[in-house]
Amino acid sequence: MKIGVMLPIAETDRGLMRRYREIREAALAAERDGFDAIWVADHLLFEWEDQPRRGVWESWTLLAALAEATERVEIGALVMCSAFRNPALLAKMADALDEVSDGRLILGIGAGWHEPEFRAFAYPFDHLASRFEDALRIIAPLVRTGAVDYRGEYEQAIDCVSLPRGPRESGPPILIGASRPRMLRLTAELADAWNTCWLGRASELPERLQPMRDACADVGRDPETLELTVGQIVTFPDLDDEDDFPGGTEQFTFASSDELAAEWRNFAAHEVSHLIVWPTPYDSQCLALVSAALRTYRDGNGA
């Protein structure tokens, strides 16, 4: 099982905003420590009731820079919002970034969900699933074959080509983050990989899997051909947490790096192919524990 790590590109609840040089060093450290991939979120801002707006760096620009800065790790967004960029252009951008990274891009995409950023940047927030379907039916063939001719209700790409092609004949793999029935069906039909997040323990995974298996059955796909990936939030006792956790901290807290490594083996037993870890807080103490877990996991699995 691959282990990837999220990078800190958003402002924390306490107002900490990391500059690019810090993010670049975090990526290089992840590569040195043996992680298989680095990931960023794709948002434009965060706005919660009774809280000040929180900033975030634009993710595609950072991915391009990090692709040049690194040499081995895969790179991707968890996940790129299809509504923020013209879908045909996004596919062409993916070809270029795959070229820059020498074939290391994972094209993670999703429909988006945080209404304040849509409103602030004047993107429509209606019919998100329908808009995503139009975008996906442009992106998938354009990335995979270099050509598309599609006329949808919300998006069009008429006699469109993406040239030159990137380094991989079929383009970068498409990963979709989805949980609702229509999105799961689109994932089953058109994606190479599916992500479910945010989990703490592998015991939470089985109830997430059946709806995807049902979606695969609906479109006539063997679910074994769809790569299973998981996003996992990780923290440890007595750390100075920067952010709130969805649903509280208990499910995401591990007593030690050994306990975390053992949980990763549980995820691997569920045939997860890529686990994407979100260390919280993103500080030296937490990262040291996560890196120690990676060494323990690899030693225990003969890797």
List its traits.
about 300 residues, alpha/beta, TIM Barrel, 8-stranded parallel beta barrel, two-stranded antiparallel sheet, 9 helices, about 40% helix, globular
On the 0-100 scale, what is the average pLDDT?
Answer: 95
Question: How large is the radius of gyration?
Answer: 19 Å
**Percent helix range:** 25-40%
- The CATH homologous superfamily is called Luciferase-like domain
List low-pLDDT spans.
none
Number of strand elements: 11
Physical arrangement of strands within the biggest beta sheet: 1-2-3-5-8-9-10-11
Name the overall outline: globular
Describe the 3D structure:
This protein is α/β, with parallel strands linked by helices and about 300 residues long. It has one domain (about 1-300): Alpha-Beta Barrel (TIM Barrel). It has helices at about 20-35, 60-70, 85-100, 115-120, 130-145, 180-190, 205-220, 255-270, 285-300, and strands spanning about 1-5, 35-40, 75, 80, 105-110, 145-150, 155-160, 175, 195-200, 225-235, 275-280. Strands 1-2-3-5-8-9-10-11 form an 8-stranded parallel barrel, surrounded by 6 helices. It has a two-stranded antiparallel ribbon with strand order 6-7. Helix 6 packs across helix 7. The radius of gyration is 19 Å and the shape is globular.
